[in-house]
Amino acid sequence: MSKLLNPVVLGKLGSTYGIRGWLRVFSSTEQSESIFDYQPWYIQRAGEWRVIELESWKRHNQDLIIKLKGVDDREVANSLTNCEIAVEAGQLPPLEEGDYYWKDLMGCQVVTTSGYELGKVTDMMETGSNDVLVVRANLKDAFGAKERLIPFLDGQVIKKIDLTAQLIEVDWDPGF
């Protein structure tokens, strides 16, 4: 078992497919099949990241399905359902100036252009038309918000991202 020092989640194991241990895979990579370019994969079990070996994969209708080494029946495969698939961050290609991975935005403080602190980024969602920042509001938020969903529209809503300062400036109404 090798150690995973800087995990980046690229997808998730879905429901079982058939009786021979195949599983559906949900990929978070830009091109869904690109998830197979990054090996080895790790999943978290009992609080530890463990390597899993891909034996085979194929496209079935709209789904990607995989066969993992050592997983030969539906029961074992079912125990892996909903496990996140991670890789070592160093496996990802270098970014161009001004680009960033979603993982880089996690924990950033989100502030409006007028200086109101909306909270911290806890997640990102892909909606089809645009990505969405999930921002956990500060405990004493004046608007009583617990969480905000802010469209990730660069230039329109997202005005500035400073990863060094862990700060994202947005043009967004705090009451919304």
From TrEMBL:
Subunit annotation: Binds ribosomal protein uS19.
Function noted in UniProt: An accessory protein needed during the final step in the assembly of 30S ribosomal subunit, possibly for assembly of the head region. Essential for efficient processing of 16S rRNA. May be needed both before and after RbfA during the maturation of 16S rRNA. It has affinity for free ribosomal 30S subunits but not for 70S ribosomes.
The protein, known as: Ribosome maturation factor RimM
Membership in a protein family: Belongs to the RimM family.
Entry-linked Pfam families: PRC_RimM, RimM
Subcellular locations according to the entry: Cytoplasm
Family matches, as PANTHER family: RIBOSOME MATURATION FACTOR RIMM (PTHR33692)
Gene Ontology biological process terms, A to Z: ribosomal small subunit biogenesis; rRNA processing
Keyword annotations from UniProtKB, A to Z: Chaperone, Cytoplasm, Ribosome biogenesis, rRNA processing
Ranges of residues in domain Ribosome maturation factor RimM PRC barrel: 102-175
Organism: Limnobaculum eriocheiris
Domain of life: Bacteria
InterPro entries in the cross-refs: PRC_barrel-like_sf, PRC_RimM, RimM, RimM_N, RimM_N_sf, Transl_B-barrel_sf
Domain remark in the UniProt entry: The PRC barrel domain binds ribosomal protein uS19.
Alphabetical list of HAMAP family matching this protein: Ribosome_mat_RimM
GO molecular function, one term: ribosome binding
